[in-house]
Amino acid sequence: MCFRLYKGELLDSVSVGRLKFMENLIKLKPYLKSTIWGGQKLKSIFVANNCDNIAEAWTISNKSTVACINGKADDFGTFNDYLEKCGAELPVLIKYINSADNLSIQVHPSNQQASILEGQRVGKAEFWYILDCEPDAYVYLGFDVPINKDDFLQGVVDGSLLSNLHKVPIKKGDYVYIPSGTVHSMSKGITLLEISQNSDLTYRIYDYNRKDDFGNARQLHLDKALQVLDFENINSVVIENDNLQNPKLVLEYEHFSIIRYCLNDRVGFVTPKSISINIISGKGTINGSPIIAGDAFYVEPNVEVELVGIAVIVFTYIGD
User: Fold this and answer.
1) Are 195 and 255 in contact (CB under 8 A)?
2) What phi and psi values does residue 42 have, to the nearest 5 degrees?
């Protein structure tokens, strides 16, 4: 990975000449998803007045809409349409999540397990960047004590499963990495950015006996969950809190690489790989076009980009 910069430092700093803009800096409009645990907070970020209980805003996804290419707006269709025309695939799924209620207890399969169980090539490992949360917010990550399958299933039936999960208090700025096979969940009152493999495969284990709009219990996937759960994952921990004192924080995981960057004035770069750009807070411009919190961009290889302003930005490297 290498950024070439005008000013500041991401990874490697070198002198760059005058920018020559290309036509493949793509602004995406999010796909919004409502669930019974969603809330109202994402409506203000994404100006979604006609949606209720927005739980997720998929900013970088196949279902996102291409809003602009090189600053020019048009009816480009979905990002999946664009990628198919280019013969390309999107290896990551990036979304905002807001929990007005507790999420279900769940687990995701690995690539191999997804292939065996679903006939899909990609499983799901994911990363959470906590953007905001209530004082008593927490996440479940792995098991607190060893548990066998029989006790696990009994815990699902009688509700005692929660006492066997590793409960971790969280605060704004925490990072959480969740490998496939890890039982996990989050409490109500959390807003976060999730970066994951491009899969929505989720096996629901326990859902607090909630009912859908038709009075039906939400479906559980215990048979498949038992085949993918890592019962040896004990006392998983939250990554060190990010207080934004370091202008650049680089995070490397098995399936993706992430840079959290504090923009303060102006930076220019070009990357040999595709990247995504998520504007977390602040405002400014990208190649002369305005940016605000919630904006998301897909940048194809070898595109030169200039960012100006004061903002917190998350870059994700896409692909190998």
Assistant:
1) no
2) -70, -20
What 3-state class would DSSP assign to 66? Answer: strand
Q: Tell me if the pTM is above 0.70.
A: yes
Structure confidence by residue, pLDDT tens digits, 140-164: 999 998 899 999 999 999 989 999 9
Distance of CA 142 to the CA centre of its chain: 19
Residue with tokens 């019974």: 36
Cα dihedral 46, 47, 53, 55, rounded to 10, equals 0
Tokens of 258: 């992430």
Return the closest-CA partner of residue 172 out of 205, 128, 206, 142. Answer: 128
Q: Span 94-120, mean pLDDT? A: 96
pLDDT at 319: 65
**What is the C-alpha to C-alpha distance for residues 280 and 43, in angstroms, rounded to an integer?**
15
Cβ atoms of residues 102 and 188 within 8 Å: yes
Backbone angles phi, psi at 150, to 5 degrees: -65, -45
User: Is 54 exposed, middle or buried, given 0-12, 13-18 or 19+ CB atoms closer than 10 A?
Assistant: buried
Beta-carbon count within 10 A of 302 CB: 12
| 50, amino acid identity | N
Grade residue 4 by pLDDT with cuts at 50, 70 and 90.
very low
- Compute the distance between CA of residue 245 and CA of residue 70 in angstroms, rounded to an integer: 32
* Residue showing tokens 């769940």: 106
Question: Whats the size of the chain, residue-wise?
Answer: 320
* pLDDT for the residue 198: 96
Hey, what domains does the chain have and what are their CATH numbers? Answer: 92-228 (2.60.120.10)
Checking if the pLDDT of 47 tops 60, the result is yes
Ramachandran category for residue 234: left, alpha or beta (phi over 0 → left; psi -120 to 50 → alpha): beta
